[in-house]
């Protein structure tokens, strides 16, 4: 979405093709209520609010606002002369350049490695949060030890009756600032334990086993939020026959792949020193677009700053 905005600022005609029903990727689909802290200018912003702001930003230059096609999957990319032909679930499209910004690709949550009734998902067991109000005044257990688990523990602490954070290690893998906030919070840390049983008779209860020990704990809770991360499937990149390195698009300093005219940004790319953060992806977008603009219109030697446009 930011790439499309920046392309509009450079007065380039842009088409955004999205396989999902709405723009926003994982942030819109999985984390609309999560506080995101790696976006410049915001100490913290909910995922849904960030996507709303990006929608507004995309419309900043009406004459070059992007065309958006949702529920449309790109199945093949072929080069013909100076154009690329995109075969999609809705037909074909032609373009001079392509920017691939698919994140990690198709994603699915890592689930509990124990047997449980799948009917509990969405009722007692959750893998992502669409609405934090569903946890108001409830006792919630969160499983995980990374940034996402810590962020949800701190977020739900504000509205839940009680929050447990279950992790298999004594130490957490989150950002230092987040771990410091966690240690000062009222979240009850349950370490080092793993969930080895889920029961619902007569109440929803978690059976916890001590890691490298024999101690067991039973926790009666209203809900369990599992934050073991997500598995990503980037096989679509192989279908498009693009040059890969460790299942990611290999790009150069201009964010261009080994196929001239095809660029990649965000979590789907790799290069020396790559950092997989939203902030980094935002920074990669202008690099790709400025290089495209220079190739299409070599007379535009200088990349424009927003302050120049305002003059």
From TrEMBL:
Q: Which reaction does it catalyse?
A: 2 reduced [2Fe-2S]-[ferredoxin] + NADP(+) + H(+) = 2 oxidized [2Fe-2S]-[ferredoxin] + NADPH
The enzyme class is oxidoreductase
Query: Mind listing the UniProt keywords for this protein, alphabetically?
Result: FAD, Flavoprotein, NADP, Oxidoreductase
Q: How does it assemble?
A: Homodimer.
- FAD/NAD(P)-binding domain residues are 66-276
Q: How is the cofactor bound?
A: Binds 1 FAD per subunit.
- EC no. given is 1.18.1.2
Q: Which family is this sequence assigned to?
A: Belongs to the ferredoxin--NADP reductase type 2 family.
What Pfam families would the database entry show?
Pyr_redox_2
CC cofactor: FAD
> From which domain of life does this come?
Bacteria
One GO molecular function term of this record is: flavin adenine dinucleotide binding
Please give the name of this protein: Ferredoxin--NADP reductase
InterPro entries found in the cross-reference section: FAD/NAD-bd_sf, FAD/NAD-binding_dom, Fd--NADP_Rdtase_type_2, Ferredoxin-NADP_redctase_2
């Amino acid at each position: 979405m930011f790439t499309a905005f920046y392309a509009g600022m450079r007065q380039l005609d842009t088409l955004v093709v999205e396989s999902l029903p709405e723009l926003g990727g994982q942030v819109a689909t999985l984390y609309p209520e999560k506080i995101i802290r790696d976006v410049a200018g915001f100490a913290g912003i909910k995922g849904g609010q960030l996507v709303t702001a990006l929608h507004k930003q995309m419309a900043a230059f009406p004459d070059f606002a992007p065309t958006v096609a949702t529920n449309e999957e790109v199945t093949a990319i072929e080069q013909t002369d100076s154009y690329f032909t995109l075969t999609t679930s809705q037909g074909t499209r032609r373009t001079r350049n392509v920017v691939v910004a698919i994140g990690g690709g198709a994603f699915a949550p890592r689930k509990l490695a124990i047997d449980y009734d799948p009917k509990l998902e969405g009722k007692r067991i959750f893998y992502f949060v669409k609405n934090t109000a569903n946890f108001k005044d409830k006792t919630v257990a969160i499983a995980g030890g990374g940034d996402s688990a810590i962020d949800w523990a701190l977020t739900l602490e504000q509205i839940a009756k009680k929050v447990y954070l279950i992790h298999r290690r004594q130490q957490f893998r989150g950002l230092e600032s987040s771990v410091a906030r966690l240690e000062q919070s009222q979240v009850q840390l349950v370490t080092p334990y793993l969930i080895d049983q889920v029961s619902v008779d007569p109440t929803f209860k978690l059976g916890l086993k001590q890691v490298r020990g024999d101690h067991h704990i039973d926790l009666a809770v209203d809900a369990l939020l599992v934050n073991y991360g997500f598995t990503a499937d980037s096989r679509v990149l192989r279908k498009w026959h693009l040059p890969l390195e460790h299942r990611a698009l290999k790009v150069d300093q201009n964010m261009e792949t080994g196929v001239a005219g095809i660029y990649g940004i965000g979590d789907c790319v790799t290069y020396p020193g790559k950092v997989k953060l939203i902030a980094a992806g935002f920074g990669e977008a202008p690099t790709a677009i400025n290089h495209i603009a220079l190739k299409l219109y070599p007379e535009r030697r200088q990349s424009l700053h927003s302050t120049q446009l305002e003059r």
